[in-house]
Specification:
The protein is α+β, with helices and mostly antiparallel strands. The chain has a single domain (8-136), classed as Roll (Bacterial Protein-export protein SecB), CATH 3.10.420. Helix content is 25%, strand content 38%. Helix 1 (81-109) packs across helix 2. The radius of gyration is 18 Å and the shape is elongated.
């Protein structure tokens, strides 16, 4: 049986920047999680790039992890605009954030300190912020050789 092709799908993830410092054992499980998001839609190539920046720190600032992760998505041309916007602001962050959680857990597990596992978050406010930070492009890379 053939599987239907997803109308919006994650094609890859890249860590653009990563930072970690820990001066002492992070105490407790109360961590502040700050996020910044922005998206870039290229309508010509039907791609969406989600930039997710996450900063995690403990109350005493003895632990800090920052990550800038990019998710690359593709989408069908015939998706209704409202549905497509929901894919961008709801689905994309929900698909990308578990990779951030996993990255921070792996990073801290290999650091010699206690593994820090971020809780699952309600990403509704992240989506609202993203809605205001989406840029649209119309360009398609030119595959034609330059003529002189």
């Amino acid at each position: 049986m053939d599987q239907p092709i997803a109308r919006f799908s994650l094609q890859g993830i890249q860590v653009k920047e990563s930072y970690f410092t820990q001066s002492a054992e992070a105490s407790g499980q109360d961590f502040a999680v700050d996020t910044e998001v922005e998206g870039i839609v290229n309508e010509a190539t039907r791609t969406f790039q989600l930039h997710l920046r996450v900063r995690v720190s403990d109350e005493q600032e003895s632990f800090e992890a920052r990550i800038h992760q990019v998710g690359n998505f593709v989408f069908d041309r015939d998706i209704e605009e409202k549905v497509l916007t929901n894919f961008f602001v709801i689905n994309a962050p929900a698909m990308l954030f578990p990779f951030v959680r996993s990255y921070i857990a792996s990073l801290t597990a290999l650091s010699g300190y206690e593994t820090i596992l971020l809780p699952a978050l309600n990403l509704q406010s992240l989506g609202e912020s993203l809605r205001d930070n989406i840029k649209y492009e119309q360009t398609e890379q030119d595959d034609q050789p330059a003529t002189e």
